[in-house]
Design a protein that fits this description.
Layout lengths: L16 H16 L3 E3 L2 E7 L6 H7 L4 H11 L13 E6 L5 E9 L2 E8 L2 E8 L3 E10 L13 H13 L15 E11 L2 E15 L2 E10 L2 E5 L19 E4 L2 E5 L6 E4 L2 E4 L5 E3 L4 E8 L5 E6 L4 E10 L9 E2 L4 E5 L9 E8 L2 E3 L17 H17 L15
Antiparallel strand pairs: 1-2, 2-3, 3-4, 4-5, 5-6, 7-8, 8-9, 9-10, 10-11, 12-15, 13-14, 15-22, 16-21, 17-18, 17-20, 18-19, 19-21, 19-22, 22-23
Length: 411
């Protein structure tokens, strides 16, 4: 597996936070926090620690509290420095008299606070980071699961894996369907500042080869609606998600005769048990109306939702149900309707997920789910142009490619 290296170009030092994250900053902070003198100015760079305030940071680095007050006042209209966040980066340029000449604080991934000393006092402004956008490509061979198959554990790859799971959530169960030897090709937007990789944005197209079947996805936007479609313009979105949880494992399958581990008897198990840590959020599998929310005997805390097309979904053994998820409430696909637990009759934390179709329980892993709306005829030619271009790029991907590799060379 390739080791990811992040280049530090000649850009504002505060931008390093957006490329390294808290874990990646440990070594960088050791390197940069030292006060290296450049003529009569030296630079201090650090990350906000738990429970740390800007006043505590000034004290730690021997900076003037009087200047801190002036900077707070000058920055008031741009950003409230009393609300700094753990893990964000700050930097100071300090003169030989320990006076601050320049200060930066990373507000979020899109902006930072810039403070400059002038003869009249401090001037502060919120600066929006300007990114250069390009189109990148990735080819990933899958072993065991999608997240562990990513080029590194960096948060951008983790986010990319979650986005892929969202795109294919209606066709692929990332718990039970993934096989060694599967692969995925991705065309994705990349953001750069100078020569420094910022991260990924929208997945523009993907080709997922799963157990001999190829699933293609093309991003298309029209009239403010964004969706993913197959090569024929049919929506990948369906009325119900294949699974209401991400990256878990099945501890018990749908069965007409299963030996119950607690009751020690054989009886039907008309759902799928997903084993996952207590407190894991559970999403509504589709748009619908809550029919039941509360405690239900052996199922413990349970939510039952009615959907269109004769579908109902059941979510059992929850540890907690949000107050707004009550009988009669309307929910949208993906809304959090509860959290995994072990209430009722259960040997450990898991979700008992069930689907009923027209009054009869069906296997959630095998039931055929109706699709959402397809591409309108009026924009089909526009979609075909987009899909053909992306298809050509996907075809060219024949080996693993990442946005950056060892020696920091862009592919």
């Amino acid at each position: 597996m390739k080791r990811i290296l992040f280049g530090i170009a000649s850009i504002p030092v505060i931008l390093i936070v957006f490329f390294m994250g808290v874990r990646g900053m440990d070594s960088a902070e050791e390197m940069l926090i030292e006060k290296e003198k450049q003529e009569s100015i030296y630079t201090i760079v650090g990350i906000v620690r738990p429970k740390e305030t800007m006043e505590a940071i000034f004290v730690k680095h021997g900076l003037s509290k009087e200047e801190l007050f002036e900077i707070f006042q000058s920055a008031k209209k741009s950003y409230d420095l009393s609300k700094i966040s753990v893990g964000n980066i700050y930097s100071f340029e300090v003169d030989e008299k320990n006076g601050i000449q320049h200060m930066q604080y990373g507000i979020d991934e899109e902006s930072f606070l810039k403070v400059i000393s002038t003869p009249e006092g401090f001037n502060a402004e919120k600066v929006v980071i300007k990114y250069r956008k390009s189109i990148g490509s990735l080819f990933i061979d899958i072993e065991d699961n999608l997240i562990f198959s990513m080029p590194s554990s960096h948060k951008e790859y983790h986010r990319l894996a979650l986005e892929l799971s969202d795109i294919y959530a209606w066709d692929i169960d990332f718990t039970s369907d993934i096989r060694n030897g599967d692969s995925v090709k991705i065309i994705v937007e990349e953001l750069w500042v100078g020569e420094v990789f910022k991260g990924y944005r929208n997945i523009l197209a993907a080709e997922f080869s799963n157990n001999g079947t190829v699933y293609k996805a093309y991003r298309f936007e029209h009239d403010g609606y964004v969706g993913y479609y197959d090569s024929k313009g049919k929506s990948l979105r369906k009325t119900l998600l294949r699974s209401p949880l991400k990256f878990k494992y099945i501890s018990s399958h749908f069965s007409r005769r299963r030996f119950h581990p607690v009751l020690r008897i054989y009886r039907p198990h008309l759902g799928v048990d997903y084993a996952t840590p207590s407190g894991t959020p559970v999403s509504s599998a589709g748009d619908g109306k809550v029919l039941y929310s509360g405690y239900k005997g052996q199922y413990g805390k349970m939510v039952r939702i009615k959907h269109s097309g004769g579908f109902e979904t059941y979510y059992g053994h929850l540890s907690r149900i949000p107050k707004k998820i009550r009988k009669g409430a309307k929910v949208s696909q993906g809304d959090i309707i509860g959290y995994v637990g072990a209430t009722g009759v259960a040997t450990g934390p898991h979700l008992d997920y069930r689907i009923k179709l027209n009054g009869r329980f069906v296997n959630p892993l095998k039931v055929r789910l109706p699709r959402s709306r397809s591409i309108a005829t009026s924009v089909m030619s526009e979609f075909r142009e987009t899909a053909d271009y992306m298809e050509a790029r996907l075809t060219l991907l024949t080996q693993p490619i990442f946005a950056f590799k060892e020696k920091d060379k862009k592919s």
